[in-house]
Each structure stands twice: as C-alpha cells, then as structure tokens.
Amino acid sequence: MAEWILLPVVPLTLSMSSHISMSVDLQMTMLNDRYDPRFNTWIHLANMNQRRTHFSLNVFSGLLFAVGGRNSEGCLSSVECYVPATNQWQMKAPLEVPRCCHASAVVDGQILVTGGYINNAYSRSVCMYDPSKDSWQDKASLSTPRGWHCAVSLLERVYVMGGSQLGGRAERVDVLPVECYSPYTGQWNYVAPLQTGVSTAGASTLNGKIYLVGGWNEIEKKYKKCIQCYNPDLNEWTEEDELPEATVGVSCCTISMPNTKTRESRASSVSSVPVSI
C-alpha cells in the first residue's frame, strides 16, 4: 500500500509545478522555489522575467523551460530558461502563437508542446522546441482538442491525457481519450482511455508506469481524490489508492527521497551547511 509523507509547507501557495522547482500559478507572480530532499527544506530561486500562469514547465539537460501561459495582458508566447549555475532566467525563442493551458514533455532531446487554449478556443495544435537550435517547429496535431490536460514522456513516447474541451452545447466536457506520440514516426495514436475524466490534474512516471492524480471532473463538478495508473505493457488504466484529500491544480514529479533518519540529521544541520542552487 502507498505511504504518504507530509513535507514542509511551501513558502507560498503554489501550483502548476514541475520537477523539484515550483512556480506560482494562481497569483500570476514570478516567484519560484525549489524543494531539496537532502535537507527537507524549500529554497527561494530567482524570479522569472515575466509573470505567468497556466504555463508548462519542463526539465532538460539540467535547465528549466517555462513555456507560454497567460497573465493580465493575455496569452503569452514568451519562453524562459532557468540556469541553476547562475540562478538566472534567460529569454528564449518565443512560440509562434501565444497559448496557455497547454501541456508539454521532453522527448528525443526536444520539448513537445500540445494543445491548450489558442485564440480563445481549445486547440489540437502541437509544436516542438529544439534547445540546441533555440527554434520551434510545427508537428502533427492531436486528434482531440484539449486544454488543462497533462503530458508525460515514457519509453521514448509522449502520452497526452485528460483535460477538457467544448461539447455540443458549448459546455466544458471531460476528454477521456489518451493519445501517444512517437518522435520517430511523427504521428499520434490512441491508447486505452481514462476511466475518470480530469482536468488540471498532476502526472508523473514511476517504475515504467504513468500516474495521474487528482483533478477536476466536469461530470460530477468536483475535485477528485483518484490516482489513475497506466501500464503501457498491458495498455490499461487502473485506479490506485486515493489521495489523502481531493485536489486540483496540482503538479507532480518523481524524486528519490533519503531515508527518514538521514533526512532528519541533515535538516538539523542545514543552517550550517551551504546549499548550492
């Protein structure tokens, strides 16, 4: 049975996070904090150059890439890259079209950006960023338009799951179909659909499986506790143990945690030990 461990409270109320760095979502600020499992503490990082919410954040080659989003001025096309060695954010080549509420994942050394909200509509659009060239290229579109969904990379494939789109009466509806992208064929294929539709859920991989946690269900109009697990070998989704409480707007990552005794020992001496960013 899964075990939940309570960690230190984040300095600010955050969401839309990725990896061990977290970026403020709902407040549309530029603040960032990083969790260090060695000392069980949060460390404040340099602020982003631009306020943003509903953006995507990915890790590649030791760098963080914040893509698109929106703020009080509207949807954003800007892209920022965080360099831990200098604790600074650098501006990169912008998206060709501003978008928010999208999802992205790293595959084949590039960042694949999927769907989202473009020109006031849910989109099927997909584009890929090449960090080595600092350039963007359009890719095959999703079969199903969606926003507020999740994307993860597993076994050299990108899986796009969840989210919502507009129904026949212009109402928001859950997107159950799950799509899989191969960078070698450049095409999308359907895999087993979700059992429970969720938007703004969290997703991560662990031991060769995909875990989709929490989120908002349009049919029930409520937050969910469910943890849905996808096994690519069997091409099936199962429901795991529930979250301690229903949640939405959460993001996930997989990190290695030191054992409790080691973590407590390090935490007790954190004030006297320099921690690099």
UniProtKB/TrEMBL annotation:
Extent of the signal sequence? 1-17
Keywords assigned:
Kelch repeat, Signal
- Short name of one Pfam family for this protein? Kelch_KLHDC2_KLHL20_DRC7
Q: What is the top-level taxon of the source organism?
A: Eukaryota
PANTHER family, A to Z: KELCH-LIKE PROTEIN 31 (PTHR45632:SF17), LD33804P (PTHR45632)
Q: Output this protein's name.
A: Kelch
Q: What species does this protein belong to?
A: Willisornis vidua (Xingu scale-backed antbird)
